Amino acid sequence: MKTAPTAAPALLLVCDLGKSGGKFFYKLLDNSSDQQKSSTQALWMDSEVAHRSVSVVNQVGTGGRSQDNAWYRVGETLTFIGKAAQAHLEYNSFKEDKSLKAPERIAGALGAIAHAHHLPSQFAAVVWVLLPIHELSTRSAIATRLQEICRGFHFQDQQAYQIALSLSFRPEGYGIYVNRKQQLEKAGMAIAQRTTWVEMLGHRNGTQLAFETGTLNVAKSTSKFPGFWEVFEKAAIASGVSSPDYGVLLRALETGDAQQYSAAKDERIDLSAAIQQVESGYLAALAPHFNDHLIPGLASRQGDVVLAGGAAYLMRSALRRYFEDRGFGDRLSFAWEGDAELWRWLSEQLLEVHETPSIPVRMLDCFGVFQALLGEKQRMRGAA
Amino acid sequence: MAKPPGARPARDTASPERVKLTYNAAKSSQAGVVLDYLLKNDCFDSRQGRDKVIDALSAFYRPAAEERRGQLSEEELRQVAEYCVEVLAKQIETLCESYSLESPLKSAVEPQDSDEPEEPTGRLEVVLAEGLRAIANAITTGNRPIKHSSREMFDDSAIDDGDIDAEDDAVASFDADQGVEMDGTELGDLDQLVEPHDVVVPEETTVHFTA
Fold first, then answer.
1. How far, in Å, CA of B36 to CA of A172, rounded?
2. Closest-CA residue in chain B for A266?
3. pTM for this structure?
């Protein structure tokens, strides 16, 4: 099949495939006129993937939003992504296959976008994918599998797509750096003149990206320091807080109010000791990483620390005290601070924010990388 | 009939300090079967059995009861309800596992042979969501809640229209298409990531790329 001389619209897509959900930003471009066909859009898709035999295709519906019913056929296999996969996993007791999720999730997003925007059966897409820095070695396997799918798949077994891919990868945290660059530029400062440490503090583990005078120092970047949840659970048990009251302790940490009502005990309880234990435990767990990879750099040169991630939000007071006690309070910022308009725009973009208000914070890294992709296209257009 | 002299006055069983429940059931009735199981069980004593009765009743009705009593704040009442839901959910899961039933709850997918620990972030997510909702509310103008679009996300007409409230100037003025120009050296030793993987061109097609 040949395309028309005025080529099919190109799609720009950035993917951040988190364990709790897939974050995407995309934009359609009309190659022939080089005019924008649409503005930047955000997309959230759940993370599950399921495979089934084509024999059940008659049992599968095609209604609803594309991203909620994202599935495609390749050969004799149906692949379900996100909410569509959840339905099959729940009602049919199928186990989720986590071994090859990333290519399927990206293909699911490509198909959902193409279907929703009535793209032609053949089009070109520029796709950037975020990966944790310690998982970048998997990029070739992801690329091979994704290109295989994009040679031809039938979305909802209806529309056939062949997608010409230009695929590359960025480390997680890079988008936080891009956002920081933009913030500094608005204030008349150049990020390249400073060192920036991006610390993504997650539930399972943490990631540090060290940008020295505008360039990533891979040797000083890592994604293997402790996550929050294991420390939290140990501290809770040690201070006598049982699992029915974990939510109460989290609430106490978030609000700073140690006096909380326990529904399990049907009484108000004092969680001062437990709060202290969680904060000191988490900082103690982070201390080797900070002492080895961050504090010496802060002490010896000018630079800034940007903290991101859910654990950073929860422990923000303790973290702020930690850096202030060491004289680095004025060099610390949090990823969600600063741009109120960005926050509101992200909240407007997605219906899912109704149920999960933390989604905008989770989208910040992906948004930053998408801005970098837009910037690169602008730069190349200008050079042409 | 007059009470005999010295007789003790009848005990007031409706004392405001206590609530009493007496229930007689035929052993063959459904209630009788359940009560007999709980009160005469080799695995636990009758006191524990009575506690189980109260636990079950509380899981069902405590939120409504506390609401009527009116002594808890709205937040505390919500926490009671949350706790009861957790208790009920655990019992549902226990029954489903014991009797090989499909769970009606939307539970986490069990990974196959996964070497990753299960991520118990449900409570963490709830607390973070509440806190971030507070941040979102704080940075909007006054107490006005964040407005969410009611449109389907892939509604083309909504894309063309923007579907942004004209009164919300801050959102309308935000430029998500601005882009940030990076000078191309940021990734240092990871430069090879920037090089695109092979472009796949479907057979017998011509696809034009613009820079």
1. 59
2. B80
3. 0.71
